[in-house]
Amino acid sequence: MRLAIRWGIPSLQACHALKSPTAPTGLVMALTRPPWSRHELMAAAIADCQVFLARGMGAGAYESMKQAGISPMVTDIADIDEAVQAYIEGRLVDHPEKLH
After folding, report:
1. Whole-angstrom distance, CA of residue 61 vs CA of residue 72
2. With 70 as the cut, is the pLDDT of residue 25 above it?
3. Please, what is the average pLDDT of the chain?
4. Residue 71 maps to which CATH number?
């Protein structure tokens, strides 16, 4: 199982930059395309992951993840290690009401 995690990083594009050394090109594309394309690019950047954990996320990104076959989970757990452990143990609760 592969997890994508967004924690204390201002955008998923920044997470993509951490994941891939070729991200600067993708970043430019993501920032100059319409929002719906940006969400598709975000999902494509983590296409090899089954789950995406985040402390916060917009509704468009959440739906794009689902459409890409990635399970988005918005959590209220502040500590990244604790959130991952909760997911592994099957006790992490998704909070879609926190979408913005």
Report:
1. 9
2. no
3. 76
4. 3.30.420
Q: Which two tokens stand for residue 69?
A: 């076959």
Domain of residue 93: give its range.
3-98
- Euclidean distance between CA atoms 37 and 26, whole angstroms: 12
Tens of pLDDT along 45-78?
A: 888 899 999 999 999 899 999 999 999 999 999 9
Q: How many domains does the chain have?
A: 1
Contact residues for 5 (Cβ-Cβ < 8 A; gap 6+): 15, 52, 53, 54, 80, 83, 84
CA 36 – CA 94 distance, rounded (Å)? 23
CB atoms within 10 A of CB 37: 13
Structure tokens at 35: 């929002």
Question: For 1-100, where are the alpha helices, taking DSSP H only?
Answer: 12-19, 23-32, 35-45, 59-67, 80-88
Lookup: tokens for 62: 């959440």
Answer yes or no: are the C-beta atoms of 87 and 53 closer than 8 Å: yes
Taking the C-alpha atoms of residue 56 and residue 50, their distance in angstroms, rounded to an integer, is 18
